[in-house]
Amino acid sequence: MDKIVKTAMPSTSTTVPVWAGPGRLFMAVALDDARVYNAIRRDEWLICRASRPEAAQMSEARELFALLGQSADASVVKSIERLVAEGPDHQLCRVNPLAFAARRGLDEELSIAAFLHGARLGIFEIAWNVLCPGCGGVLDTNASLKTMRREEYACALCADSYAPTLDEMVDVTFTISPRIRKIAAHSPNELPLAEYYRQMYWGSGVDLPEDSYQAAIDGFIIDHVELAAGEKGVLSIQLPAEFIVIFEPVTHSAQFIDVKGEATRERQSLSLVYDRDHAHNQQMELRPGPLRISVENRSDMRVLPSVCIAGSALHDMLGRRRPFLTAKRLLSNQTFRDLYRTDTLDVDQRLSITSLTFLFTDLRGSTELYERVGDLAAFDLVRAHFQVLNEIVSAEAGAVVKTIGDAVMATFPTPHRALAAALRMREAMRELNQRHGREDLLLKIGLHEGPCIAVSMNERQDYFGQTVNIASRIQGLADAQSILATGTVVDDLQAASLLRQNALMPESHDVSLRGIDRAVRVYEIR
Ligand SMILES: [Zn+2]
């Protein structure tokens, strides 16, 4: 959507210039003052003046943002709408919702929720990008987790391969839909080199400098050539005595050259071929001096071989990292689970998570509760308890995976958020009981952190593995006064500091759990 800036208000003149987006000027002519003024006030004026497709696009955008305002936080929606109207193209490509929130002082969870609702409405296109842990580059991008099926992803720049995990290797980003606003990144093959690196190569976890970006790129790229599909070209450069990488970001291939020894005046030469199955990933030695590189593009898309110095300028740029929305965090997000209920993974898919924290709760003595207060009153109480638990889980960046009878299984991206939720749940039950003047709702809570796999089971995105079993068994041992947690939870730095802040000193003892060979040390938080 284009920005609407009124540059002149009608007074006596009947011609009103109006900017509709950068570089485009529309003129309104021969309208009387009152009609122009009223139309401007109603913001309708440009629509009737703009060309048909643009008018349709703008009114569609306006309707979608009005809908978004009904399901997401108003101040976040306003910020998104402003970004879409006024932001430069690159800021609308692969938006990192955490960086978006941080820059504007907005709440992270509310921002994630607004982008998810925006994607559901078609304002944004969601992408699951597999990242290289080394350079932060995007190795593969998917519209859904369902197509993330490779067991290993290779990064030519880092000359390494990685088995994907959902923790830090998949970032989830939001790109504006071309229906709302057409941006340069919608045609990646036309992006100039520096913009291709910024918008297509690096993931949203690399904190690229906003103002000095071009200078930073020029600090390590000596030269490059742009070759359309099937084209041939030549690069003639002076090799400095440095470690050089000729990196091609579209086919993701790299040729490493260790330039050393005595400088030569004699021209050295090298030829490179790019195609789908032919990724350069080799190292060679050359001497400082002139080099002629003949390049041939046998792939079906444009390539951008770039000669880079693998020195401090490149490493400084790659070293600037910022938090990003990981797939793991999104799967543990209540809004995501509500919006994409059964649509996350295929039944035969298993995706690894290195660390996820599980929280299990159950109501103690709920059978007696039904007996004591009767079905109707008990039902209301149990429902009130579910509502409180849901609110706490989502406020602590977690998500309820399922409920089984009166029991709840929830996941959190970190141990400290799960512990914070457990403490708040215990407190909330105390308050509910006080209100009723009886100890009716007694919650048994268990916490455990560890690796697991994300699966799809019974039409639900669920988790599988020993970590889940241990968390569930530990909850079974808890009594209504204590929260039981394992060492992986209480030893977490932020969780430990949360315990200290609340003056809580967990007591440890070893327990044996059904189906687990070794004794497990549990910590009782009273
Ligand atoms: Zn890499």
Could you provide a short overview of the structure?
The protein has 526 residues and is an alpha+beta fold.
What does the model show?
By secondary structure, the chain is of the alpha+beta class. The protein folds into four domains: 4-50, no CATH class; 56-216, no CATH class; 221-310, no CATH class; 343-525, Nucleotide cyclase, GGDEF domain (Alpha-Beta Plaits), CATH 3.30.70.1230. The two termini are 55 Å apart. The chain binds zinc ion. The site of zinc ion has 7 residues, from loops.
Task: List key phrases describing it.
eight-stranded mixed sheet; single chain; five-stranded mixed sheet; 4 domains; alpha+beta; binds zinc ion; 526 residues
| Unique ligands | zinc ion
What's the CATH topology label of the largest domain? Answer: Alpha-Beta Plaits
Estimate the global geometry from the Cα principal axes.
elongated
The first-level CATH class name of the largest domain: Alpha Beta
- Determine Rg (CA atoms, Å): 29 Å
Helix count equals 17
Q: What is the total domain count?
A: 4
Fraction in helix: 25-40%
List unreliable stretches of 5+ residues.
1-52
Distance between the termini: 55 Å
CATH homologous superfamily assignment of the largest domain: Nucleotide cyclase, GGDEF domain
Give the overall pLDDT as a whole number. Answer: 86
How many E-type strands? 24
Largest sheet: 8 strands, mixed
Strand residue content? 25-35%
What class, by secondary structure content? alpha+beta
Q: Give the name of the CATH architecture of the largest domain.
A: 2-Layer Sandwich
